[in-house]
Amino acid sequence: MNEHPFLAQAREVVGQANVLTQDLAAYAVDWKEKYHGQPMAVVRPGSTAEVAAVVKLCAHHRLAIVPQGGNTGMCGAATPDDSGQQVVITLGRLNRIRSVDPSNNTMTVEAGCVLQTLQETAESVNRLYPLSVGSEGSCQIGGNIATNAGGVQVLRYGNTRDLVLGLEVVLPSGEVLDLLRGLRKDNTGYDLKHLFIGSEGTLGLITAATLKLMPLPSANAVGMVAVTSPAKAVELLQHMRDAMGERFSAFELMSNPIVELTRRYFPALPQPFAEQHDWYVLMEVADGGTDAALTADFQAALEQALERELVLDVVITQSQAQAKALWELRDNVSEAQQQDAPNIKHDISLPVSQVPRFIDEVSAELATTFPGSRLFCFGHLGDGNLHFNLSRPLGSDNTLWLKNNDAVNAVVHAAVARFNGSISAEHGIGQQKVDELPRYKSALELEVMRTIKRALDPLQLMNPGKVLR
């Protein structure tokens, strides 16, 4: 079979070693191993200029482009189809930190930088880049931005959208849109960067970003509490916000089944309490000053919660090692579920006040409709984001269980709509939810989105089949 002329031309741009046509499995399947594709090639550009040149070649040959970062996404947005006619452009070689400006509290970085590297770079100049997700050791900032990643610090610092001041984007035409401005105030027309944040690579290819930095807290305190119910957790959230104010940065709800599952696959992790409870909350506060002063305030607030019978038991860590161990209990949840069995995942958001009623009603409905199924509920209660995942009954067949995917989604997502929530809080739409989106967005919303897509990508080459049909 004759080789497609694109391949030779791409090699001229990025070099022979950076156009891959064999052994592409790592680029052709998503992290959950749910979606499998077959790309024509994987191209690894090393600069924005090379990205632009490759995109122009794809446009010339009418080849669809699938942008890919660390490939840690949860909805298949970075996975090609099986046509053998799509080009994966992976950005791991664009990993330079272009500048750090502590006085302006910004850093400008390329899209292939690993999130943990950015956290460490910020810390080296006594600053904080607060985005924190379970995959931070391998996910890349371009993918974080393209999916508007959330994570455990959203309560205080917001989603990725709130942490981006400027972008550099290669448009589907191959033109480079330079929006790299480190300004907090720039009221000069449409704020174009927000078109690309959360667009999942369907409007352009993010190559660099100017990010906000924060003062690095000199003190932090971590604690875990047991509560009787999500309703008590919501009461506790309000109490802790009132008591700790802006120092309050994370509030993670975890059901007992998800804690026990995680400890089963990671047995070195701590058992926080002597006896099991139905629900737990992991929380963190951070501030200037000393650990001792902050911990004293944190402890006082939790003692008040005990007196008000908002919590059943409390553990406050006494060292960074203990704090790290508790956070690993939360950070390893997804990996534990991945090892346990295929599960039907939901990344939903609700008004915080409605979370307890949602959990009660939908848990009961799922238990009746899918007898023996195992519900694993956890998430960022502080911002109303739940991961509401249903696993097969013990002893049942994995393949047969996954045939319930659409039926389970119908129950959960219909309830989300009743509660005025969202079917995607932080993972995006990708290909997993693309066919469901029209049921939860108005026809006018979808048409405005399609109008933007047609204007920027008239050839419909950027990540087709993701977000919009």
Structural class: alpha+beta
Q: Report the sheet-strand fraction.
A: 15-25%
Structural Rg:
23 Å
Strands, count: 19
**Tell me, what's the shape?**
globular
| Helix coverage percent | 25-40%
* Biggest sheet layout: 8 strands, antiparallel
Write down the overall mean pLDDT.
Answer: 95
Individual helix count: 17
Uncertain stretches: none
Report on this structure.
The protein has 469 residues and is an alpha+beta fold. 35% of the residues lie in helices and 21% in strands. The chain has helices at residues 5-14, 25-28, 48-61, 115-124, 141-146, 154-157, 193-196, 230-244, 256-265, 291-307, 320-331, 333-340, 355-369, 398-402, 405-418, 437-440, 443-456; strands at residues 19-20, 41-43, 64-68, 86-90, 97-101, 106-110, 127-128, 164-170, 176-179, 205-212, 214-215, 219-227, 248-255, 279-287, 313-316, 343-344, 347-349, 374-380, 385-391. Strands 12, 13, 14, 15, 16, 17, 18 and 19 form an eight-stranded antiparallel beta sheet that branches. A five-stranded antiparallel beta sheet has the order 5-6-10-8-9. A four-stranded mixed beta sheet has the order 1-2-4-3. The longest helix has 17 residues, at 291-307. The radius of gyration is 23 Å and the shape is globular. The mean pLDDT is 95.
Key words describing this protein structure:
19 strands, eight-stranded antiparallel sheet, 469 residues
